[in-house]
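Example: CRAL-TRIO domain-containing protein.
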Amino acid sequence: MNVLFVGQRENPQCPLGIVVAYNTGYKMADDVGRPGGVQSGRPHLTVSRTLQRSSAATETRPECDMNGSQLTELPDDSEQLRTYVVNLRRAALQADELSAVGTFSDCFLIRFLRARDFDLALSLKLVLNYLHWRRESPEISTCLSPSSVFGLLKTSYHAVLPQRDRAGSRVLIYRIGQWNPKDWSALQVFRVSLMTSEIISRETETQRRGVKAIFDLKGWSLGHALQINPSLARKISSVLSDSFPLKVRGIHLVNEPMFFRPVFAMIRPFLPDKIKQRVHMHGTDFHHTLSDFFLPDILPPEYGGNGSGIEDVCHAWTQELLQSENLLKRIASHPTGDTSTSTGDALISEENETKKLTEGRCLGP
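Written out as C-alpha cells, the predicted fold is:
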C-alpha cells in the first residue's frame, strides 16, 4: 500500500490540520464505511480533518462566522476568502504527487472552493482528483479542440441554454441522436462535454449555482451502446462526481429507450449517492414533466418551452466553443490546467521542489 501524506497532524504548517492520504486499493482504518470509500483496483484520494488544530493553524482561520453558502456569494477579491485560498494553496503544494508544481493562482483555487462550499478538506480532495484525472486520461484531457469535432457540433448535438434556470444553474442539452457512432468515437463526444465544462467553470455565477443537464436519448442505438465500455463509464462518472470543479445539480434523461438502461447501470455504481438522487428519467412524456424543474421561458419548444429553438441555441454555443479554441488549447497543454499561471510558474525545477510557495496571482486567461 502506498500512502502519501500532505502535512501531518502535528505540523503547524498544515492549515486546519488537513491530512491527505493517497491510497492505492485499500481503505484507511478511519475511512471504513464512509461514502466514497476506496474502490478496488483504482487509486483513490481520501481527505480527513483532524480534531486537533495547531496554534499556527488557528491564526490563519477566517475571523468570521459565515458558512460555505454565504462565503460562495462573496466576490473573488474579498478579503474574507483570502485565508481559504492561501490555506488551500499551501495544502495542495505539500502533496507529494504535486512536488513539481510551483504555484496555483487564486482564481483557479476559488473554483474548487466554491464547488465544495469552502470546505477546505473537500476542496483539497477535489483539486487532487482533478489533477489526477488529467494525468490518467491524457487521451481526453490533452485534446480540447472544438475545431477537431466541428462536424459533430454542427449537427446540433450540444447546447448551453442562454438563460439560467430559476436557481441560477447553467442548463446543458445533449442530443444523443445527432451523434453518429460511425463518424465519432465516444472519446471525441466526451471531449465536447469537457470543453464546455472548462469554459463555464470559469463563470462566477456557475461556480455558485452549478449545472443541470438534459440528455435527449432519442435515436440511441446499439452502435452507441457499444462505444461505452467500463473504462470510459468510470471516467465519465469520475468527472460527474468528484473530479471537476462544478456542482452537478440535476441530470435529466428524456426519450430513454429500454436498451439504454444496461449502459446507465454500468455508470450508476460509480456515482455517489447525491448524484444518483439527482438523476430524473422522464421518458417520452418529458414535455409535461420537464416543466416541474425548468421554467418554460428558458426551454426550447422541442422540450416543452417557449424559448429559442434548439437549432439556434446549438449554433450559438458552437460559435462560443470555436471562439474559445485558443483558451481550450492552452488549458489542455498546461501542466495543471491553471492558465492564469504561466507554464514556467506552474512548474519548479527539481532543486527547488522543497521550496514552499503559498502565494499566487491571476495573470489573466
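The longest strand covers residues 18-24.
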